[in-house]
Amino acid sequence: MMRPSLSALLLVASTLSTPISAIPFTKRHNGPWPEAIRSYYVAAAEELAHLRATTPSSTLASLTPSSCNIASPNMPSISGLPPVSPGLSLYHVAVGRGTQNYTCDIAHPSSVPVAAGASAILYNTTCMASVAPGALSKITAASLKLPTPAKNKLLFPAQAFVSGNHYFSDLTTPTFNLHTEKANYGIQFAKLLTKVAVPDSMQQLGPDQAKAVPWLKLSSSDAPEGLASDGSPVKEIYRINTAGGSAPKTCDAMPATFEVQYAAEYWFWGA
Description:
Elements: H1 35-54, H2 57-62, E1 89-103, E2 114-124, H3 126-131, H4 133-143, E3 162-170, E4 173-179, E5 184-196, E6 215-220, E7 234-244, E8 257-270
Antiparallel strand pairs: 1-2, 1-8, 2-3, 3-4, 4-5, 5-6, 6-7, 7-8
């Protein structure tokens, strides 16, 4: 099985601990990987090569996640998704890998599944958004070709570290807890502003052939009753480049509760 050295991809996964100038680079992306994973490695290899060719060696020697210019990334968008509000700047980027959750009225097989929140681990890809946006755009589909990583493990194939968890504090409040032993980016409570269906031309199917859940724009909201905000600067959150997660059209043959695997990029914008 041939693939680029995982250590050579640590920079674009925003987990680099050694200078990039010391990382050996070999373009070995032809292997028996699923196409989504192969596409990720191709994009990562090409962007690493471009970085080496266009960046002074003195800059490469000192390049680390903390020195990434997170003001430079251009967040992907699709028609109908409103732009980031004026005055906000990029705060954090994470890939979420987990499940969209649903309930069904099993007494009525023709009924439509009802969304019941989501649960996902969030992985820090902030530096990748700046250094290797092409590789970042491939992660969601690639990650669904493999089992969900165990707790506190890196996200393959990006080798990205955990930056928090995504869940619902109640039925209507998506929550992003970006507090781990390694870093604290705060806790964000949110509410839905805009939902845009993914065009067929951009569909990234899940392992069960589930279609991609919509792209979203969320805004910050007050903490639900009994919970407290920690003063996070985040004002808007985007869910983009989604893969999988959609429920079947009806509840026929489905259990009362079920989960659908998904992955998505989450872009956090703060004041």
